[in-house]
Design a protein that fits this description.
The complex is a heterodimer. Chain A is α/β, with parallel strands linked by helices. Chain A folds into two domains: 11-255, Alpha-Beta Complex (Amidase signature (AS) enzymes), CATH 3.90.1300.10; 263-457, Amidase signature (AS) domain (Amidase signature (AS) enzymes, Alpha-Beta Complex). Chain A is built from 15 helices and 13 strands. Chain A has helices at 3-8, 11-19, 25-43, 51-66, 109-116, 159-166, 183-189, 223-230, 276-291, 307-322, 324-330, 336-346, 350-370, 408-417, 446-459, and strands at 46-49, 78-82, 120-125, 145-146, 149-153, 172-177, 192-195, 215-220, 263-266, 295-298, 376-380, 421-428, 434-441. Chain B has one domain (1-62). Chain B has two helices and no strands. Chain B has helices at 3-11, 21-45. Chain B is flat. The chains are: A alpha/beta, B mainly alpha.
């Protein structure tokens, strides 16, 4: 099998070939590393590449599989992880100068579960420093470039993960999200990004951005692959105070590409500031859902117009608390934009933080009532396609400082309230850049979100578009 | 306390950190703007219950 064919495979196919011994883990890992080597100079998607270690682990996986000890869909498969997760014996930087040579002595819960599932971690991906950003330009290790257009951002903070999957460097990557750090880069890079309900995946051993909004999330090209990669890493972990008691995860076996009878809510007032091409693709996506038998329900939830402000202040206060010591000892070692953000957060008082949490509760109650009327809320993931790197941190066009019907509210809503959210490709802009749509479900309705997203992918081929890697 | 004094009081929280005048200007602007945002959110949240964040240890049941 040609290396290019291997890198084009998703997790489901790759895993099936490895399990059937039609393809070795060594071949799969070598193909991913070869592509990584060729593209990394252009993308800057990685902080640490684990070539030797990955090749040794692939050989071990092949030996196990030959002995009939196949562990499941991730066994022998090359994956990447955001450099937010501790890896025993391998440096873990958080994209920061402060930890540029830090080598932890333990694995994060996610990493331990990946190793138990037999996944081969081939590299740790680039990010905004400690997850503080939406562009992946705020890294001590330089900006991530979008494989669809190298002068564009990949989105952040998990931009390296999204760029890697879009470029075919492993079928799966694991990232984190505090505001929009999985769904935004997935949208900009033309892949699927899924953030489960708060507490489904343990955060133990990953850096905290804002503890009440931090999630672990996944990137893949298909929803089926997301479900396959979610099951081995989900589940209760007493070491994460937010972890929830749950059944043994079985999202993949229960995945049904079916949106028949689904009530899909649309908040039309939030579409006013959306770019025409994005809006057009979103409207076309709604027609797909109608064709699949879903009922489109117009919603008006004015409380959501306060979501971005509430999320921003919550995040600022919590991240200042988390980084209090480093702020005083390492202010000038932080990326300047991140350092200024921490300074602003330090000045938020306890009574102000509590007032913000009261507002958050009002929004939560409004959403609880909304999910009596619909199962899913659909919206464009972002108001525009990936901006140019030259536009800097303001290029995303976010407004987190004013109440109103702007898209930033819907982007930050899932992480602020802990709702499951999935971004998936739903169109292309006139300049050839991916457009994403997000589906937001009720708390613990992760399966409903995945099923709806899978139904959309069964009726469309946007997820089959690829950046022109040969030209990079 | 006037607005300038309020900002100055907030900035004392950053005491001991050597922040450049340009950074300080940006930081002071955002701190002041955050007070406006909190005021808006306070009005928005009027009448909403204060939330409880007690967390029971794993495995404990009623």
């Amino acid at each position: 099998m040609a290396p290019t064919d291997i890198t084009e495979m998703g997790l489901a196919d790759l895993s099936a070939h490895i399990a059937a011994r039609e393809l070795s883990s060594a071949e799969a890992v070598n193909s991913a590393l070869t592509r990584l080597d060729r593209l990394e100079g252009k993308l800057n998607a990685f902080i640490t590449v684990l070539s030797e270690q990955a090749r040794a682990e692939a050989k071990k996986a092949d030996d196990e599989i030959v002995r009939g000890q196949h562990r499941g869909p991730l066994h022998g498969v090359p994956v990447t992880i955001k450099d937010m997760f501790e890896t025993a014996g391998t440096r873990t930087t958080g994209g920061s100068k402060i930890l540029q040579e830090w080598i932890p002595d333990r694995d994060a819960a996610l990493v331990a579960r990946l190793r138990a599932a037999g996944a081969i971690i081939i590299g740790k991906t680039n990010l905004d420093e400690f997850g503080h950003g939406g562009t992946s330009t705020l890294s001590y290790f330089g900006p991530v470039h979008n494989p669809w257009h190298l002068e564009r951002i990949a989105g952040g903070s998990s931009g390296g993960s999204a760029a890697a999957v879009a470029a075919g460097i492993g079928p799966i990557s694991y990232g984190t999200e505090t505001g929009s750090s999985v769904r935004r880069p997935a949208s900009y890079c033309g892949i699927v990004g899924f953030k489960p309900t708060f507490g489904i995946i343990s955060r133990h051993g990953s850096f905290r951005g804002a503890w009440s909004q931090d999630h672990v999330g996944l990137f893949a090209r298909t929803v089926k692959d997301i479900a396959l990669a979610l099951d081995p890493v989900a589940g209760f972990d007493a070491r994460d105070p937010a972890s929830v008691q749950q059944e043994i995860p079985a999202y993949a076996p229960r995945l049904k590409a079916n949106a028949q009878g689904l009530r899909v809510g649309v908040l039309r007032r939030f579409l006013d500031g959306v770019d025409p091409a994005v809006r057009q693709s979103f409207e076309a996506a709604l027609k797909i859902f109608a064709g699949l038998g879903s009922e489109l329900v117009d919603l008006d939830v004015p409380e959501i117009s306060y979501a971005a402000m509430t999320s921003m202040l919550t995040s600022a206060a919590e991240s200042a608390g988390i980084n209090r010591r480093w702020f005083r000892e390492h202010y000038h070692d932080f990326v300047p934009h991140v350092a200024r953000g921490l300074a602003v957060g330090m000045a938020i008082t306890a009574s102000e933080y509590l007032t913000v949490q009261r507002a958050r509760h009002r929004i939560r109650e409004a959403l609880r009532a909304t999910y009596e009327k619909v199962e899913i809320i659909a919206a464009p993931t972002t108001a525009r396609v990936a901006p140019l790197l030259s536009e800097g941190v303001k290029g995303n066009g976010d407004d987190t400082r004013h109440a109103g019907y702007n898209q930033s509210n819907l982007l930050r809503l899932p992480s602020m309230l802990g709702l499951p959210g999935c971004s998936l490709p739903c169109g292309m802009s006139p300049e050839g850049l991916p457009i994403g749509m997000q589906l937001i479900g009720e708390w613990f309705a992760d399966q409903t979100v995945l099923n709806a997203a899978a139904a959309f992918q069964s009726a469309t081929d946007w997820h089959k578009r690829r950046p022109d890697i040969a030209k990079l | 306390m006037n607005a300038t004094d309020k900002i100055a009081a907030r900035l004392t929280l950053l005491e001991g950190v050597n922040i450049s005048p340009a950074d300080l200007e940006t930081i002071a602007y955002e701190i002041e703007d955050n007070q406006r945002i909190v005021d808006e959110l306070e009005a928005f949240a009027q009448g909403t219950p204060w939330i409880s964040l007690q967390v029971q240890p794993p495995g404990k049941k009623a």
